[in-house]
Amino acid sequence: MKDSIAALRGLEKQLYAYQYALSVMEFDEATAAPADSADGRAAAAEVLSRARFDLLINDDTAALLALAAEEAEDGQQAAEVRELQRQYDEICNIPAEEYAAFASLTQQAIPAWAKAKRSNDFAAFAPYLEKIVAARRRQAACIDPNRNPYEVWLDRYERGLTIARCDEFFATLRKTIVPLLAEIQKRGCPVRTDFLEQDWPMDAQRALSANIMELWGLDAAHVVLSESEHPFTSGFWRGDVRITTHYMPRDMVSNLYSVAHEGGHALYDAGSDPALDFTVLSGGSTMGLHESQSRLFENYVGRSAAFLRYLWPTLTDLFPAQLAGVTFEEFYRAVNRAEPGLIRTEADELTYALHVMVRYELEKALIQGTLTVAELPAAWNAKYKEYLGVEVPDDTHGVLQDIHWACGDMGYFPSYALGSAYAAQAMDDLRTTLDVDAQLAAGDLRPLKNALSDRLWKYGQSREPQWLVQSLCGGAFDAAHYTGYLTRKYTELYEL
Amino acid sequence: MKDSIAALRGLEKQLYAYQYALSVMEFDEATAAPADSADGRAAAAEVLSRARFDLLINDDTAALLALAAEEAEDGQQAAEVRELQRQYDEICNIPAEEYAAFASLTQQAIPAWAKAKRSNDFAAFAPYLEKIVAARRRQAACIDPNRNPYEVWLDRYERGLTIARCDEFFATLRKTIVPLLAEIQKRGCPVRTDFLEQDWPMDAQRALSANIMELWGLDAAHVVLSESEHPFTSGFWRGDVRITTHYMPRDMVSNLYSVAHEGGHALYDAGSDPALDFTVLSGGSTMGLHESQSRLFENYVGRSAAFLRYLWPTLTDLFPAQLAGVTFEEFYRAVNRAEPGLIRTEADELTYALHVMVRYELEKALIQGTLTVAELPAAWNAKYKEYLGVEVPDDTHGVLQDIHWACGDMGYFPSYALGSAYAAQAMDDLRTTLDVDAQLAAGDLRPLKNALSDRLWKYGQSREPQWLVQSLCGGAFDAAHYTGYLTRKYTELYEL
Description:
Two copies of one chain form a homodimer. Chain A is mainly alpha-helical. Chain A folds into two domains: about 1-90; about 150-495, Neurolysin, domain 3 (Orthogonal Bundle). Chain A has helices spanning about 5-30, 40-55, 60-70, 75-90, 95-120, 120-145, 150-155, 165-185, 200-215, 250-270, 285-300, 305-320, 330-335, 350-370, 375-390, 415-430, 435-440, 445-455, 465-475, 480-495; strands at about 225, 235, 240-245. The first copy, chain A, has a three-stranded mixed β-sheet, with helices on both faces. The interface of A and B includes residues 45, 47, 237, 277 and 278 of A.
């Protein structure tokens, strides 16, 4: 190994250490920390984040990257240089003062958003959002003055993605989902849901979590389940991945699909080639790819008839009283029902993409300057009426529901819908060689996992995201697989 | 504030951040981490420890400390300089290669010790211990070539402590405890213990923990209880202190006194003056002082007749079936019984100091060169026979039981006994102005806590340890308070 590569590896390990510490601190905050302990955490995080920044952004690193780019001797080394250079450029394209001012702005915007949401007061948040939109437009011009500013951000979150492809994607979804949902509401066979809300014993819910983790094949020596207000996954490194869930005494389905979903993220994070350990290439790639794996295990496995039929005896064992008068068919239909609602995070598999589409269209218009922040709430409510057929009663349950824009994330939402679509295409392609339904019906996820590892997991970030999407999907991405899946599933489910 | 002091504060905040991260990582390891996740944690900890070392040990820091020592304008600033200079000197007195080699040696010695303990194979651990003893002798000579090498280490752990005072301390204990224990065994009134081992419901045990934390006045917004294999306390900063316990289904007393003990540590860590936040002066002082507070709340409060009488209705409410045929007097005597045993961590209040004395005498002899590692197991067994009257069946339950020597800690054990003695004297002195028994009998710990805060907690590390000992004890330290307490308590308990 050339000296420059060895030096690069040393830098990567240092960057890993700071990221590890910050990840553990965040995980601890969500799972264990006392309520009023934020000051000390913020003070420590500020120092460590700054130290990480200083490690990466300096003239020595710039020179090292240039030399290492010439001296890289294999694909992995070249990928390490490429990924570090990308991280370097992402920061360096934006002037340091702009970078610091933006960090400060979002730190103020987040509590302002939280307060505005609590008090249903969009006007109180509007000045922050205006500044964020203006900053994101300025920054996009720094990164690439010749490109549509919204596309600059799309490309940052889901690298290689364009507005044209994104528009086409959502147009396809809209053409399928909006009429399908209308059909369901007009003449869909009713779904029994009365049994969903009742007392579900906690011990049995915990046993079910353990059961799902075992079925997913999550190695308890490397992946553990904790509890937090909102479920999430944090991969500290390949050999230490944390997932969390939130138990609700009156709702068993929520925990079941939280564990199924986060378990998919965990399989991806824990599945990188060990050769990538402690480099910038270990762990899952873009958020769209990450979401493809969580949704694949949540919906395409966890909500499938084949798998649920396998799980049914376990469920009736764990919850004999609760499921006494419920048939398998009723349970399957209940956990797959489609219902238009106001809140994205509570949406079902069919309507979820519509929630995302509203946000995509609105944030694109904001960044492109065709919509003002003042016009945003009315535009939000109009789109919810148009796509989902629901009346938004207030901004708390409307435009203020998500934290993302307050964090400065604009261009991030599309990934949520893309993930489901990647997964649908991957499943279609996998079915050409694997008898997935028979395997799920037998509770055997190994063939599926092996295939996903070969197509995606093992690469970590050593390949470009769009290469990984093709590898996962078995060809060029085509949203028709996703719309086809939704049409088949919901036509059958609602006997349309 | 002078520029040098401002720069020093900046350095202290950076050091705090690294310590915070390392503390969270250790806490996470003990409470939440999956079993086989150590590699990634070690890789991160190595980078962060090294970065912390580099922050402190460099010519700029040396020059800054010299300037700040001249420019300090108040007692706190002077104390910050003094404490940082002490930390700096502690490291710089030892050559860098020796420092690094010793870290590497103990990293190998710890797993070697664990394996030797499991397989009862002292010979396998002996070569590591020989190297550790030799290194600690060499290092002591670097720190102060004119001083007894064991005293160099005593002084490092419990600053200001000498061999002469330590010898006198243990001689006093021995003169009291050994004959007292013999009397108890010869003619002590028998203690009923049959009810201690039975099924103690977990929910009630958890409720009892919460009850103790509330009685101790631990603010749930800043102090939380988690679970780990071995109970411990970790103060991340004044506003975030973690304590842990270990629940045992067949033993209620273990958790009760773990929470009582760790709760004492937590009160001390959370009790520093806020003006010390994020400086090197925040948090408890030496380990002996820390242990004085944990033992005070565990034994002098938690095992007192006055407090237990107050707690008794809660206990019988929480465990009605388990305590149905048990009188208060029987319970009080059972949790205070004295029984010679083999294992330090399971020892009672009376015999605990004897376990510590064995270790003190042996580690002193090792470092002074009057005992070889080969002779150690026989010497250990002889002292257990002499002081505690027990036959050691094997090294696993003898000389291999504690991790401390494998970690390189020699000179640390005396602090455990000193803490109890400091606490005994403090309680005697506090009783001259406070009606402690009446307050404990009413479940009111506030007067006691206020007094301890005034004497000790609020100072953090802003005063020298020996000053703090005097402040806590209300005068020069005198072990007679401790031996007097033990004599009174056990004479009455066993009706001698």
